[in-house]
Design brief:
The complex is a heterodimer of chains A (661) and B (378).
Chain A lengths: L1 H29 L2 H5 L1 H24 L6 H6 L6 H6 L5 H22 L5 H25 L23 H30 L4 H32 L10 H26 L3 H24 L12 H25 L14 H33 L7 H18 L2 H4 L7 H25 L7 H22 L7 H10 L2 H26 L1 E7 L4 E4 L2 E12 L3 E12 L2 E6 L2 E5 L5 E4 L1 E5 L2 E10 L5 E9 L2 H19 L23
Antiparallel strand pairs in A: 1-10, 2-3, 3-4, 4-5, 4-6, 6-7, 8-9, 9-10
Helix pairs in contact in A: 1-3, 1-7, 3-6, 6-7, 6-8, 7-8, 7-12, 8-9, 8-10, 8-11, 8-12, 9-10, 9-20, 10-11, 10-13, 11-12, 13-14, 16-17, 17-19, 19-20
Chain B lengths: L1 H22 L8 H22 L4 H17 L16 H23 L9 H5 L8 H14 L4 H13 L3 H15 L3 H14 L6 H13 L4 H13 L3 H14 L7 H12 L20 H6 L2 H19 L6 H13 L3 H14 L4 H13 L5
Helix pairs in contact in B: 1-4, 2-3, 6-7, 7-8, 8-9, 9-10, 10-11, 11-12, 12-13, 15-16, 16-17, 16-18
The chains are: A alpha+beta (661), B mainly alpha (378).
């Protein structure tokens, strides 16, 4: 009964979304406050109804109700509870339900917190947001209904793909979806502005924090996915330029650009038209990511939905919203007034450079991702575009981006002083130079360019700190004054500092892991040793074991350093009961200097095991950097002040003042 | 009943919430320009607070104020008094439409796609059902749950194995029979069950372990027909035609006069000896009668048998659409149509076969030969 109640709630949600799409928009057109006001209860009801539907499905999963086809196909009675719950979104239908739930969540947030929005803008935003809901609810009900029933339930379910039975992956999709779907708010605001033909002052105040929130969740979602791939797929890599990864990376790149241009728009009322275009593009890329993953155009670990009807439907949604959005932009953008002017050397100018580089990078990834698909569609040839393509196209774009990155915050709004900023960056450049020399001294092998990349990472980190030091007048004011300034510095400034610092950490981690990784593939018998990095690894043997829903061959390794045992690792090979699929569980000894990473392979005829052992230097920096970026975003988000970016006067007071955030 | 009450409450509640704003008073919309001015005023107030707190030096506060003033000035002087159009009477129709459509359409859609009133069937509840109320699957789930706790319960495995078999879960049936044999020991029934499950799991081919199990059965019950038939079929599959024929003959000799599988044996012998090329049906991709165990076929009613045959023929016909160069398949299909009395289909298949086998001289010859034998040329 609960299941059927959820099904009814889902259908009712479709109707409510339809009302929300039509009535407030009509109200905005007729300037009728009553019709516009329907949007609020509609958005809230839609959220509640979808929540009922989602919880009903979750209930079916938790109680193993195999009379629900979706549960029978994707769950199993012996699965641990956490994977019964995560199983709800571990499949196509359930994950799309989560998608629309999050969409409704953002719509309801606009309804509830958007008091300061002009009424017509709010009505239009809610209507656009609801139109996305309608499209996806139709998609759910017509092609992927999660509430389909089986008259005769099977004795047990088919089980969840074992590689998805993992804590990081259990919560990776919700984060990713909050990120993807969060950009829908920016999209809805952009379309609403185009409908109205004007951009209100409140517009940017709304778009920036919501874009920031979406960006934060996308950042952490992608990082979780990469972390999972690192320890679960068992090849020691952390990023594969897989189309599915790219599908989430493209909206992230565009979203990062959007975040920065929204910043300019909020503070300076400049770059309005560009921000609107970016908002449309970013959400279109999110939709395209959904299309790539959900349509089954790819065959990779992520694509569990292979059904052409669905693919065509999502493609239709993508064309409707991306194409429709861009068409509206083409027709209406000229009616929007261009905002403030600025000189090329200024905070705004640096953010424009940031945007140009990020958008170019997005296009690069887009080409690398779509080209094989298009080629396969046209000629039937299957090619794969891998790391070599991205290394030679994407990476070079990142170098000027990172070189320019620390300059941005140091330049003043409207017109900046490039020379003064360079002088302030001198210290950071010196630190980077030291890092360059040190990396050459410390590493005997590896590509000659790697130390430069490391120095670049150090430069970004030092640059972020420079900005802070300059703002609090470190070194030029008394400690009391520094402390006072440090406390008074807005949280958003600390957000910038942390996020940029995190980028630097990530660059170092990526470079070190890629350039200096050690790899050993050996056949080991019990008692054999292998030296990996600074460690001496001894294979003690392997034995069978049994988990709640799998059997495994579990190996024992003693890891010693300088003769003393520092860790015992137990990598294993699992065979799950339902569905019967093998997985590898790597053994990882994690330290700041790097990870010792061991995977066990097949047993050989002579009783030995194939063992792959890696040392991945500084690999933790990658995810730690992402985490710091996430925290930085959060800090900035809690800074709820109204933001005005005032240009400093040409000949201001002798001591350059701190620009207000 | 409770379900309908809850559903109705939800539909009515949502309808009420959505239509409520329509019943209120119409407010004058704040002009969009006013909203902007409100934002700028907020910002000015914010700057003032920051300055008072000491977070913003006076000079900067001044610059920020100037910046906001500039923005205020940039605002168009003529505020868009896009004139609230007079109430043109959209409210009442909207109200009525929503009040009617929300409950009615949602209910109609639900009745079309949902399963109204179908209760949830959580596993725990199904495990607790009395035997009379339980479905086979419920009982299987119950035994499975028990066997997870007590994996050495041989009687459980013994009980579930034939059920798996009848549900078509042959791999699991074979492993359940094997476990029961390990725990409780060998009996002819378990061994034969294991063999049957293995054969079905391998699409009718007799695998080595099934053969060994049936030889074990014959040591205890040398006259048992089931393993003898399968072992003879296995010989046929191995290409040992004459041995297979003599085994079939021996079986026929021992068979009671009313044995239902006599006809099957005669067919096999005729197939192996006859001029028409014999096809070892058990080795085919699609399970043929040879792939079914004879006991099952015998146990079927006339109607079931007919249905099964029709199904197999249509499957074969389906397959022949893509494998048009397969002479064996065409021969079989034409013969099957003829046997079923579907002469038109047989003639159609004949012409299709001739088209498909143009390049295959021997294939074409045997098709023509068969057509002549069956009197299809006419």
């Amino acid at each position: 009964m609960i299941v059927e109640f959820g099904h009814f709630a889902l259908i009712l949600a479709l109707l409510v979304a339809t009302v929300q799409m039509v009535v407030p928009a009509a109200g905005a057109r007729l300037r009728d406050s009553r019709m516009i006001a329907v949007g609020e209860p509609a958005a809230v009801s839609q959220l509640l109804l979808l929540l009922v539907a989602f919880l009903a499905l979750m209930h079916a999963y938790v109680t193993s109700d195999f009379s629900v086809a979706n549960v029978a196909a994707n769950s199993h009675s012996t699965k641990p509870l956490i994977y019964k719950i995560s199983g709800v979104w571990g499949n196509h239908e359930g994950s799309m339900l989560l998608w629309v739930l999050i969409l409704a969540l953002f719509g309801a947030a606009v309804a509830l917190f958007g008091d300061n929005l002009p009424a017509t803008l709010k009505g239009n935003v809610l209507a656009v947001q609801a139109s996305i809901s309608v499209a996806f609810l139709l998609f759910l009900l017509l092609t992927s209904n999660p509430f389909e029933r089986l008259p005769v339930p099977p004795s047990d379910g088919q089980g969840l793909n074992p590689i998805l039975q993992d804590p990081a992956l259990a919560f990776h999709p919700p984060f990713l979806y909050v990120g993807y779907v969060g950009f829908s708010i920016a999209f809805s605001f952009a379309i609403a502005a185009l409908i109205e033909g004007r951009i209100d002052a409140a517009w940017a105040r709304w778009v920036r924090p919501w874009t920031l929130a979406a960006w934060m969740f996308l950042t952490i979602g992608i990082a979780m996915g990469s972390w999972w791939a690192y320890y679960e797929l068992g090849w020691g890599g952390w990023w594969f330029w897989d189309p599915v990864e790219n599908a989430s990376f493209m909206p992230w790149l565009a979203g990062t650009a959007l975040l920065h241009s929204a910043l300019v728009m909020e503070k300076r009322e400049a770059l309005k038209v560009w921000t609107i275009l970016l908002a449309i593009l970013t959400f279109s890329l999110s939709l395209m990511g959904t299309f790539i993953v959900r349509s089954g155009v790819l065959t990779s670990v992520h694509s569990f939905a292979v059904d052409p009807a669905r693919g065509v439907f999502i493609l239709g949604i993508l064309v409707l919203f991306a194409g429709g959005g861009l068409l509206m932009f083409a027709l209406r953008a000229k009616e929007l007034r261009i905002g403030g002017v600025f000189s090329p050397i200024s905070r705004e100018g640096s953010l424009v450079l940031n945007n140009l580089l990020l958008v170019t990078a997005t296009v690069t990834v887009l080409v690398g991702t779509l080209y094989p698909l298009v080629l396969e569609g046209l000629t039937g040839d299957k090619i794969s575009v891998g790391p070599p393509f991205f290394n030679s196209t994407f990476v070079p774009l990142m170098i000027p981006l990172f070189l320019a990155l620390p300059f941005g915050p140091l330049l003043a709004w409207k017109r900046g002083d490039w020379l003064a900023a360079s002088q302030r960056m001198l210290a950071a450049a010196v630190v980077a130079l030291v890092a360059l020399v040190a990396s050459y001294a410390l590493t005997e092998r590896g590509p000659w360019l790697a130390p430069f990349a490391i120095a670049l990472g150090v430069y970004v980190m030092a640059g972020a700190l420079t900005d802070w030091a300059w703002r609090v007048k470190l070194g030029s004011a008394g400690s009391e004054e520094v402390w006072r300034r440090a406390r008074n510095l807005p949280r958003s400034a600390y957000g910038t500092l942390l996020s940029h610092f995190g980028v630097g950490l990530m660059v170092i981690g990526i470079t070190a892991t890629s350039a200096y990784r050690e790899e050993h593939i050996v056949v080991m018998k019990p008692g054999d040793h292998v030296a990996v990095g600074r460690y001496d690894v001894t294979f003690k043997g392997a034995a069978p074991g049994r988990g709640p829903n799998y059997r495994e061959d579990i190996a024992q390794f003693d890891v010693a350093r300088d003769g003393a045992i520092v860790s015992r690792l137990a990598p294993s090979k699992r065979l799950y009961d339902a569905p019967p699929q093998p997985t590898t569980e790597s053994g990882i000894h994690a330290t700041w200097r790097g990870d010792l990473y061991i995977v066990i392979g097949d047993e050989q005829k002579d009783g030995g095991y194939t063992v792959r052992a890696y040392f991945n230097p500084l690999v933790r920096f990658i995810w730690f950097g992402a985490l710091i970026m996430f925290i930085g975003g959060g800090l900035s988000l809690t800074d709820r002040r109204l933001r005005v970016g005032a240009p400093i006067k040409r000949r201001a007071s002798p001591v350059a003042p701190v620009p207000a955030e | 009943m409770l379900f309908w009450i809850a559903t109705a409450l939800m539909a009515v509640g949502v309808t009420w919430a959505l239509t409520r704003p329509l019943l209120g008073e119409r407010n004058e919309l704040r002009d969009a320009g006013d909203a902007d001015i409100a934002v700028y005023k907020d910002q000015l107030a914010e700057i003032e607070t920051d300055r008072a707190r000491g977070a913003l030096p006076a000079t900067e506060a001044e610059q920020a104020r100037a910046e906001i003033a500039r923005r205020l000035l940039r605002k168009p002087i003529t505020s868009e008094t896009a004139a609230a159009s007079s109430d043109v009477g959209f409210i009442k129709p909207t109200y009525l439409t929503l009040t009617l459509a929300l409950p009615v359409v949602s209910l109609a859609l639900y009745l079309a796609v949902g399963a109204p009133g179908m209760p949830g069937q959580p596993l725990d509840e199904r495990l607790g059902r009395t035997v009379e109320n339980a479905t086979t699957n419920d009982l299987v789930a119950r035994v499975e749950a028990r066997l997870r706790d007590l994996p050495e319960d041989g009687r459980g495995w013994d009980a579930i194995a034939p059920v798996y078999y009848s549900l078509g879960r042959y791999e699991e049936a074979a492993s359940a029979f094997a476990t029961a044999i390990r725990i409780l020991g060998e009996t002819p029934t378990r061994l034969q069950g294991f063999a049957n499950a293995r054969i079905r799991a391998s699409n009718g081919i007799v695998p080595e372990d099934a053969r060994a199990a049936m030889e074990q059965v014959l040591k205890v019950e040398p006259q048992r027909p089931e393993p003898r038939i399968w072992l003879a079929l296995a010989k046929e599959q191995d290409g040992k035609k004459s041995e297979a024929i003599s085994d079939y003959r021996a079986l026929l000799k021992d068979a009671p006069s009313d044995a239902p599988w006599k006809g099957f044996l005669e067919e096999r012998i005729a197939g192996l000896e006859g001029t028409a090329p014999a096809n070892a049906p058990a080795a085919e991709n699609e399970p043929g009668p040879g792939g079914m165990d004879p006991a099952t076929i015998a146990a079927m009613s006339q109607q079931e048998r007919q249905d099964m045959i029709n199904q197999m023929v249509s499957r074969l016909a389906e397959r022949m659409k893509t494998t048009t160069h397969d002479a064996e398949g065409w021969l079989k299909l034409i013969r099957a149509y003829q046997t079923l009395g579907r002469k038109d289909d047989a003639l159609k298949a004949l012409s299709e076969a001739r088209a498909g086998l143009k390049a295959d001289e021997t294939g074409l010859k045997s098709v023509n030969e068969l057509a002549r034998q069956l009197g299809l040329e006419g």
